[in-house]
Design a protein that fits this description.
Blueprint: E1 2-9, H1 13-21, H2 25-36, E2 41-45, H3 53-64, E3 71-74, H4 78-84, E4 93-97, H5 101-114, E5 117-121, H6 132-148, E6 156-159, H7 171-182, E7 191-195, H8 206-219, E8 224-227, H9 232-244
Parallel strand pairs: 1-2, 1-8, 2-3, 3-4, 4-5, 5-6, 6-7, 7-8
Helix pairs in contact: 2-3, 3-4, 6-7, 8-9
The structure holds (6S)-5,6,7,8-tetrahydrofolate.
Length: 258
């Protein structure tokens, strides 16, 4: 599993306030904690707090001052991406483009120039598609454009898009079916990623819903996740799921930190 820490996001009040005050401490605390918990990337999301590239750069710089873990630049704004990527010490993960050509082409160009990885959402600029077929069509367009640019599949992530269970209950199983079909898009297959916490948005029993859905997602081919990497029960369920899918070699001590 590829773990992408979700916590440095202005959707969380402490991070929003820290960005407004230009106070590095909350960002650096979460960067350290998520690094310690085993994150492979740290997602950095400026959200609606500001449209200024320099604010995203400030966030990335605070994080990089305390960790070597590469950044997931969580923005769909090209103007922010173009500046933010220059601040990254390691090749980042571009999170994310849609399959609309006017966004997809420049994202792929940037990923190619920097040797970066990229997440492609299975939607176009008109919003998230509801049916499985549309999602597969969108994902296929992204995979084809990526291959045409000569980029390796190991650096492409396709995201079938998790929607909140509380408001769109029928969507969870459509996500799982789409993920299953994405695995057939290329050989070797692309990575399949998701924003896990979306599923339990505004729900009670958040942790149980996240954990249960994640195990189902693993069985459907998901191998990368934006998550609360400090949720030990969740990470243990993921490790166990990867074992059961024969993606990790069994050892009695498999739940211990490696
Ligand atoms: N796909 C991709 N990137 C993404 C997403 C995705 N980036 C953003 C998001 N979705 C993933 N990150 C989060 C982070 C936090 C929460 C959900 C998704 C979350 N927020 C709480 C809630 O909604 O209830 C509120 C925060 C709080 O507790 O204050 O759970 O799908 N590629």
């Amino acid at each position: 599993m590829i773990y992408i820490g979700e916590r440095i996001n202005t959707g969380f009040k402490d991070i929003k306030q820290a960005v407004l005050d230009k106070n590095p401490a909350p960002l650096q605390d979460w960067a350290k904690k998520q690094t310690e918990a085993g994150a492979n990337y740290l997602d950095v999301n400026l959200g609606a707090v500001s449209g200024k590239p320099e604010d995203m750069i400030w966030m990335i710089e605070q994080v990089q001052a305390v960790t070597e873990v590469p950044i997931s630049i969580d923005t769909n704004k090209l103007a922010i991406l173009k500046e933010a990527i220059k601040a990254c010490k390691k090749p980042p993960l571009l999170n994310s483009t849609t399959c609309s050509k006017e966004k997809l082409d420049p994202f792929i160009e940037i990923a190619s120039a920097y040797g970066a990885s990229m997440i492609g959402l299975a939607m176009d600029e008109s919003g998230s598609p509801k049916e499985v077929e549309k999602r597969v069509e969108c994902a296929g367009m992204i995979a084809a454009a990526w291959m045409e640019a000569g980029q390796p599949m190991e650096r492409l992530f396709l995201d079938p898009i998790v929607m909140p269970l509380k408001f769109m209950q029928e969507q969870a199983k459509l996500f799982l079916e789409a993920a299953r079909q994405f695995q057939q898009l290329s050989d070797p297959p692309p990575n399949i990623s998701c924003g896990l916490s979306n599923i339990a948005s505004k729900a009670t029993e958040k942790k149980l819903i996240n954990r249960t859905f994640m195990v189902m997602a693993i069985a459907s081919g998901v191998n990368a996740v934006i998550l609360d990497v400090l949720d030990v029960d969740l990470v243990n369920a993921i490790k166990t799921g990867d074992l059961l899918m024969n993606r990790e070699i069994y050892a009695d001590a498999y739940l211990q930190k490696s």
